[in-house]
């Protein structure tokens, strides 16, 4: 299905709704950029051979068109945030399962309040029952490491956040790194470069919470200051504007379908089979070790260990006892760089903004 780009960028109400999930900086965590040789060695070149497409082949501007700068070769695009607007793009089609991937370089210097999101969603089509898979980069303060989170929603499960938050083992503002979301009927894998950082295996008990309707790819940069708590302590400082995030080597593998009729184009079953047999869909023992190392070193929040929020962890959670021991019942690390206090953070979502406001969580 072709999306009309105009319907996406005409009114501010819709513009606000693009920021599907807005998370605030809540706690300073200082971790040196530890060089984890295990992570790097496990790089099995899963994405070396993926075919990329140009911006115009697969995407259209979503909002803030003046702040979307295509490179002349068409293979990369910059999204800017300045004091007037953020910007974003969206895939022209929705895909029933797919690999959604890009090399991304995040804005450098002081980026408090700036959020860069790379995610799949069908919220424009299914307002009440949307599905979503997120990478959200949460800005940084004073040159401290960027933090990011992943999340999974299915069939409008916005009151059941499935956030995990992490630090990175490199400075994402210095070079391009590949961020990928693989979504098949069997599992979801989030990748940073060649490291699978999170896998959600489909589980019958998840029911509709497992994304099952065609989704588009979105990339956005926006000002999250207005969601700031603590009296706007983490507002965007436009002295440092424009904030520039760059995207290149874009990948869209999957079958484009009509989201309403869910009619798939010819050849979809082959594409699905290709997706499931691709090397990035198979987690080798080496990659699994890399994933476990990443999660042990860099994950600092998991909804699976947040027993205050979920007294019974959601069904897809794999509780790793030695991992669980490191987390408090808030789902946060027991020891995290010597900071002991929490800051409140609010999560809001377009689909159930009010519900989310009422249950502003403390993560
Ligand atoms: C890379 O992809 C091409 C085309 O998709 C394929 O023919 C080739 O065998 C692949 N090479 C490797 C090393 O996987
Ligand atoms: C998705 O949600 C709708 C509305 O609540 C419900 O009717 C439908 O059965 C759900 N689908 C699945 C697969 O759970």
Automatic annotation (TrEMBL):
This is Xyloglucan endotransglucosylase/hydrolase. Gene3D superfamilies: 2.60.120.200. It comes from Papaver nudicaule (Iceland poppy). Keywords: Apoplast, Cell wall, Cell wall biogenesis/degradation, Disulfide bond, Glycosidase, Hydrolase, Secreted, Transferase. It is found in: Secreted, Cell wall; Secreted, Extracellular space, Apoplast. PROSITE patterns: GH16_2. CDD domains: GH16_XET. Its EC number is 2.4.1.207. PANTHER family: XYLOGLUCAN ENDOTRANSGLUCOSYLASE/HYDROLASE PROTEIN 8-RELATED. GO terms for cellular component: apoplast. One of its GO terms (biological process) is cell wall organization. Contains at least one intrachain disulfide bond essential for its enzymatic activity. Residues 332-363 are annotated as: Disordered. The lineage of its organism: Eukaryota, Viridiplantae, Streptophyta, Embryophyta, Tracheophyta. Its main location: secreted. Residues 339-351 have a biased composition (Basic residues). GO terms for molecular function: hydrolase activity, hydrolyzing O-glycosyl compounds; xyloglucan:xyloglucosyl transferase activity. Coiled coil: none annotated. Residues 45-247 form the GH16 domain. Catalyzes xyloglucan endohydrolysis (XEH) and/or endotransglycosylation (XET). Cleaves and religates xyloglucan polymers, an essential constituent of the primary cell wall, and thereby participates in cell wall construction of growing tissues. Belongs to the glycosyl hydrolase 16 family.
């Amino acid at each position: 299905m072709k999306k009309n780009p105009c319907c996406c960028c005409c009114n501010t109400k819709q513009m606000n709704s693009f920021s599907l999930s807005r998370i605030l900086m809540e706690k300073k965590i200082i971790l040196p950029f530890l060089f984890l040789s295990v992570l790097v060695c496990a790089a099995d070149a899963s994405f070396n051979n993926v075919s990329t497409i140009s911006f115009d082949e697969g995407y259209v501007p979503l909002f803030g068109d003046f702040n979307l700068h295509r490179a002349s070769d068409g293979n990369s695009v910059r999204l800017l945030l300045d004091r007037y607007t953020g910007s974003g793009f969206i895939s022209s089609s929705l895909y029933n399962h797919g690999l959604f991937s890009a090399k991304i370089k995040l804005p450098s210097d002081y980026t408090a309040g700036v959020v860069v999101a790379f995610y799949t969603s069908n919220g424009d089509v299914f307002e009440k029952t949307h599905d979503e898979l997120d990478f959200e980069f949460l800005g940084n303060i004073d040159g401290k490491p960027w933090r990011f989170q992943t999340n999974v929603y299915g069939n409008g499960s916005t009151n059941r956040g499935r956030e995990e938050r992490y630090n990175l083992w490199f400075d994402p503002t210095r070079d391009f790194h590949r961020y990928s979301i693989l979504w098949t009927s069997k599992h979801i894998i989030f990748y940073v470069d060649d490291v699978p950082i999170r896998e959600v295996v489909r589980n019958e008990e998840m029911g509709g919470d497992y994304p099952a309707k065609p989704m588009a790819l979105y990339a956005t940069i926006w000002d999250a200051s207005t969601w700031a708590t603590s009296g706007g302590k983490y507002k965007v400082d436009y002295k440092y504007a424009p904030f520039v995030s760059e995207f290149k080597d874009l990948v869209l593998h999957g079958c484009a379908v009509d989201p309403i009729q869910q009619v798939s184009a010819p050849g979809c079953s082959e594409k699905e089979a290709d997706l499931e047999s691709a090397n990035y869909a198979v987690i080798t023992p080496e990659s699994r070790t890399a994933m476990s190392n990443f999660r042990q070193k860099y994950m600092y929040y998991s909804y699976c260990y947040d027993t205050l929020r979920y007294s019974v962890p959601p069904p897809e959670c794999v509780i790793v006892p030695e991992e669980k021991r490191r987390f408090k019942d808030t789902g946060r690390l027991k020891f995290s760089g010597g900071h002991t206090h929490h800051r409140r953070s609010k999560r809001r979502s377009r689909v159930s903004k009010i519900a989310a406001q009422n249950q502003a969580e403390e993560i």
